[in-house]
Amino acid sequence: MSTRVRIVIPGDDPPQIQGSPQLARLQPYGDVVLYDRRPADMAEQLARVRGAQVIINTRGAVKWPAAALRALPELRLIATCSIGTDMIDVDAARQLGIVVANQPGRTAAVVAEHMFGLMFALAKRAAFQTAELKAGRWTRVLNIGLQGKLLGVVGTGPIGAEMARLARAVGMEVLAWTFHPSAARAAALGVRFVALEELLRTADVVSLHVRLTPKTRHLIDRHRLALMKPGALLLNGARGDVVDMDSLVEALHSGRLGGAALDVFPEEPLPASHPILGCEHVVLTPHVADQTPEGVELLNEGAVDNVIAFLEGRPQNNVAA
Fold first, then answer.
1. In the chain, how many domains are there?
2. Which of 106, 113, 287, 301 is catalytic?
3. Segment 72-93, tens digit of pLDDT
4. 287 is known as an active-site residue
5. 79, 121, 167, 216: which has the highest count of C-beta atoms within 10 A?
6. Is 281 a catalytic residue?
7. What are the pLDDT digits (tens) for 185-203?
8. Catalytic residue among 113, 114, 239, 301, which?
9. Which residues contact 240 (CB under 8 A, 6 or more apart)?
């Protein structure tokens, strides 16, 4: 594009890209407008981006349904500070000719490290025992040893692949499931692909790393939770709606599951009244798996890279093509 463009960051809350030196790289290309608070409603959100050719979407809470996209005839690009694009109606964007550029695999090592840490925190009852000690109780509950146990990785993109590598490094065995298994992929990852039902029946720990799509919404439902081994652990680093939360709460309260570690939830922020908060053996973090200083800047850099590539006529990471 030969003329300067309007680039809007419509709701950088909690802070992601504000204050980042990456924003200075956009100065030769256009005028950047950053809003550091989430819009109160869709009317305010649309008013903020009116006339923008480029949106940098830093937070998944700022959503772009089809009706909103149709109200923005000048919009040409949405660049996300994320791997996931479930906050955007990608089909509508495709129909409208709006490029959606995400960052596949960019923070895989950071996210996998977080989920790996949650697995250990859950297995060693860290959150439960901390709560017990704060309440003045010296409670004896057996921990779970992980060496020699079986990790089932559901979804073998960059994050799932890194989880498999970390697990093998501490002496765990790894099974995996994906929609498109192949012998070459299995060899590259050092895993054995099995049917999802077999994975759930045999894994001591199940770790979720699939994209949220109509096929994966409630992939882990009441039936599949019932297939899991008694005492097994469930990790969700994918999206909240990959798991049927009502059924998960039931499974935890019944004692059939050994625990759950979640970084993602169907509704974010998590409501204070959500029943998962009443479960004992859970470890919960507020969708922060990639939120280290290094992870934040990797995502900021990647979003700006995608904007510049688009403006220079070489769009990349386009999930709406």
1. 2
2. 287
3. 999 999 999 999 999 999 999 9
4. yes
5. 79
6. no
7. 999 999 999 999 999 999 9
8. 239
9. 262, 264, 265, 266, 267, 268
